[in-house]
Amino acid sequence: MTNIRDTLSLKHAVPILEGLDEHGKLNWSKIVYDIVKNSSVAEETLDKLEKAGLIKNSKEKRNSIFELTELGKEVLEYARQGDKILSNNNRRDK
Questions:
Q1: Which of 38, 51, 67, 79 could hold 25 in an S-S bridge, CB 3.0 to 4.6 Å?
Q2: Structural domain containing residue 45
Q3: Tens-place pLDDT, residues 54-78
Q4: What's phi and psi for 42, nearest 5 deg?
Q5: How many domains does the chain have?
Q6: pTM assigned to the model
Q7: CB proximity list for 52: less than 8 A, separation 6 or greater
Q8: By C-alpha distance, which of 58, 28, 60, 30 is closest to 44?
């Protein structure tokens, strides 16, 4: 079983999920060059996100195409809600 905190703490995990949410599907090179900027980090993060069931990889010809799963959408919403809670709390503290 995957721990949500560990998964969301992966470098670039949330930006990848957000990019997939915004664009629907992204190919490997778009993720590497536009979001992560490092192929080995991208490869590791994509692999862990896929194993956690948050994204799926469908090969179209010889290109990997990634998209969010329903679970990935739920987890991204969880992360956004957490950000919103912290943001609201920070405003109250000022």
A1: 67
A2: 4-93
A3: 999 998 777 899 999 999 999 999 9
A4: -60, -45
A5: 1
A6: 0.85
A7: 2, 7
A8: 28
CATH assignment of the domain containing 74:
1.10.10.10
Using the CB atoms, write b or e for 52-85: b if 16+ within 10 Å.
bebbbeeeeeeeebbebbeebeebbeebeeeeee
Q: Are 38 and 77 in contact (CB under 8 A)?
A: no
Helix axes 13-23, 39-51, angle to 10 degrees: 80
Strands (E), the chain: 25-27, 55-60, 63-68
CA–CA gap between residue 54 and residue 38 (Å, rounded): 21
**Quick check: 11 and 45 in contact, CB under 8 A?**
yes
pLDDT at 17: 97
